[in-house]
């Protein structure tokens, strides 16, 4: 606990270190004499909600302050001497300023998705806590508040930093690092969709040749009865003229290498997806599958894409 004179004391909670090469926006990075000094710096900066302290006895000590998030990414877990802490509830002039996603005079309320955050005047792009009505506890998502987008998948296939060829359990529970590549998990996706509101699924793809596509599924939902089969009212797409993009229907069961009716497709293409065995290529895009760089995806001839994906984002946005 850090005491700020006449201000309320601020609690910090130790969180995880994750081995990842992700770079995140920081408020400050510089040398300090101790972890306590780093904590004090974060406590006095109302925009700071997390800090990373690295140092060893007799060596240099560094403090990095961040505007959002819970865990910290480091390049080497084995040889590092770092620790990560997130700030607890903090108030300024009676207003809750930390953590992001909490609101109200006593920080007792939590937004249920990023659309809800926009309605509470939250702005910009940041990690935020949300708590859908059926969630037992809040969890982190990447929010595009201005667009009301709740990110459920974020991928850089050209980085290959996170393996998307994961088990059925992983796709239910989620995996990856929220600041970079991740899948939030079907458990959380369903909690968001069960709020009683109508949602739209948006898939944004940027290809290796810099072409871009947006695919929109209206009135999107998922059922557990048939292996996380998706349903939707209709869909539309917006692509550059020189990119041929045929969307997957998602109205088939999801499959991974160890589960699902089309797990043979997942084993061959290297990632969980709504594969359709009736399709001669299993999938039209292979967005969670293996993409090889440089030179593109050797499996690209087994899809209807003409180039590998460079960046993939999947969002949910509330319509009503």
TrEMBL record:
InterPro entries: FIB_ANG-like, Fibrinogen-like_C, Fibrinogen_a/b/g_C_1, Fibrinogen_a/b/g_C_dom. Residues 105-295 form the Fibrinogen C-terminal domain. GO terms for biological process: positive regulation of heterotypic cell-cell adhesion. One of its GO terms (cellular component) is fibrinogen complex. Its main location: secreted. SUPFAM superfamilies: Fibrinogen C-terminal domain-like. Pfam families: Fibrinogen_C (PF00147). It is found in: Secreted. Keywords: Coiled coil, Disulfide bond, Glycoprotein, Secreted, Signal. Signal peptide: none annotated. One of its GO terms (molecular function) is extracellular matrix structural constituent. The keyword Disulfide bond applies. This is Fibrinogen C-terminal domain-containing protein.
């Amino acid at each position: 606990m850090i005491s700020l004179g006449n201000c309320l004391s601020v609690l910090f909670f130790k969180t995880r270190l994750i081995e990842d090469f992700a770079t995140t926006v920081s408020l400050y990075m510089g040398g300090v004499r101790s972890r306590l000094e780093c904590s004090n710096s974060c406590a006095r900066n109302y925009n700071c909600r997390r800090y990373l302290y690295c140092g060893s006895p007799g060596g240099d000590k560094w403090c990095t302050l961040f505007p959002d998030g819970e865990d910290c990414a480091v390049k080497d877990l084995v040889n590092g001497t770092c620790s990560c802490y997130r700030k607890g509830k903090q108030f300024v002039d009676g207003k809750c300023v930390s953590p992001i996603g909490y609101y109200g005079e006593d920080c007792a309320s939590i937004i249920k998705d990023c659309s809800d955050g926009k309605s509470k005047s939250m702005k910009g792009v940041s990690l935020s806590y949300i708590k859908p009505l059926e969630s037992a506890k809040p969890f982190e998502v990447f929010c595009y508040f201005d667009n009301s987008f709740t990110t459920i998948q974020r991928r850089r296939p050209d980085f290959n930093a996170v393996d998307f060829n994961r088990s059925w359990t992983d796709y239910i529970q989620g995996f990856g690092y929220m600041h970079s590549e991740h899948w939030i998990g079907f458990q959380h996706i369903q909690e968001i969709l069960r709020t009683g509101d109508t949602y739209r699924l948006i898939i944004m793809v940027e290809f290796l040749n810099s072409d871009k596509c947006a695919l929109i599924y209206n009135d999107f939902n998922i059922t557990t009865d048939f292996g996380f089969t998706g349903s939707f009212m209709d869909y539309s797409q917006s692509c550059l003229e020189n990119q041929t993009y045929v969307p997957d229907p998602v109205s088939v069961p999801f499959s991974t290498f160890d589960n699902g009716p089309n797990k043979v497709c997942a084993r061959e293409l290297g990632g969980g997806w709504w594969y359709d065995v009736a399709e001669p290529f299993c999938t039209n895009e292979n967005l969670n599958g293996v993409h090889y760089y440089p030179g593109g995806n050797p499996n690209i001839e087994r899809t209807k894409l003409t180039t590998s994906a460079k960046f993939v984002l999947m969002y949910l946005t509330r319509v009503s």
